Amino acid sequence: MKKTPFVTKEQVEEIVKTYPTPFHLYDEAGIRANAKAVQEAFAWNKGFREYFAVKATPNPFILNILKEYGCGCDCSSLTELMMAKACGFEGDQIMFSSNDTPLEEFTYANELGAIINLDDFTHIKCVEETLGYIPETISCRYNPGGVFEMSNGIMDNPGDSKYGMTKSQIIEGFKIMKEKGAKNFGIHAFLASNTVTNEYYPQLAKQLFELVVELKETTGCHITFVNLSGGVGVPYTPDQEPNDIYAIGEGVHKAYDEVLVPAGMDDVAIFSEMGRFMLAPYGCLVTQAIHEKHIYKEYIGVDACAVNLMRPAMYGSYHHITVLGKEDAPCTETYDVVGSLCENNDKFAIDRKLPVIDKGDYLVIHDTGAHGFAMGYSYNGKLKSAELLLQPDGNVKMIRRAETPADYFATFDCFDFKFEE
Ligand SMILES: *Cc1c(COP(=O)(O)O)cnc(C)c1O
Questions:
Q1: Is the pLDDT of residue 421 over 70?
Q2: Which atom of ligand 1 is nearest to the CA of 55?
Q3: Tens digit of pLDDT for each residue in 246-260?
Q4: Is 119 in the pocket of ligand 1 (CB under 6 A)?
Q5: Separation of 280 CA from ligand 1 center, angstroms?
Q6: Which of 152, 165, 214, 311 has the fewest Cβ atoms nearer than 10 Å?
Q7: Structural domains in the chain, sorted by start
């Protein structure tokens, strides 16, 4: 499918009069339409809730939009919990899916009334000792080991991942926690990442539904939810077919009717913790070409760098690039599109076929709405960009300002910097 930016050259030329490049831009209309579709796709399940994975796009303005569609927050750290609270999420609207968890974060999550999702068997004891009891509602993260394979050949390796508990640990854990007063139990698993197939959730759901039927039989625990977590992907490359959330919802529904309903478990709520699917396509990084360089390869230097978007440098991820105003120009050139870090992996694209790029051209780097800005760091003393929201009426609202040097130096308050005017 041809990838088209949600913003035009004319719009960007207007925006840069107020907000200089680089910046992350989010498409509010797109976020809203997609959040609505997710709710509709799972409306068949009475207790359904999407807990947006805050780590993907930790911005209170974004969280508040999603909240309007009934979303909760999936938090993994103290500051994410604090942000959820600040946005008015409370109680079971917050899922705390952490790992290697600092004990004080269990305490804070519990104070907020969040559902605690335990990553490890030993955390049962940690939680009991830290809180003085086991919460009434509790969840365990499952890791079946081995490989998780789908019919299109996509697979992931739960056996190599640090997350979750084995089946026998969960059986044992549920028995212990029931004994200690827990009443409502949930199960969680995240077995494959960025799956661009409608099969992942249904296949995972079937596996988890079979597990909870067995758990109910062997432990007598009241299972109240199954958390399918994240992993629903987006098409980063133009040749990929986007997932159809309605087909995914129906696939999970079918597994539910096949496995849970006959077992008399037709009150189990389905939860999800999608990050990427909720936001990635509805954000982009807008950057300007500031240099061209001709050595053994052709380079275009832009004013963004890996600090603004780490995925290409970290994972070698493909992010589609559109040169604004040249959407239909032939891709006659082969460029490496690079940032300014003193790191040779600071390349947004390698050997990419693109139209002729002139200095001053604006480039849209697609699908940065999740795991984009959020992964930013400050290597080379680089500052983080602003985040802007393109509103349905076409106006742009700043939802996070760009960092200034003062932000960079702020944590050196133990040193007396004297900057000349
Ligand atoms: C990262 C993460 C998510 C979100 O993953 P996506 O791939 O963005 O959907 C959900 N749950 C947990 C526990 C995570 O760590």
A1: no
A2: 1
A3: 999 999 999 999 999
A4: no
A5: 12
A6: 152
A7: 28-280 (3.20.20.10), 282-409 (2.40.37.10)
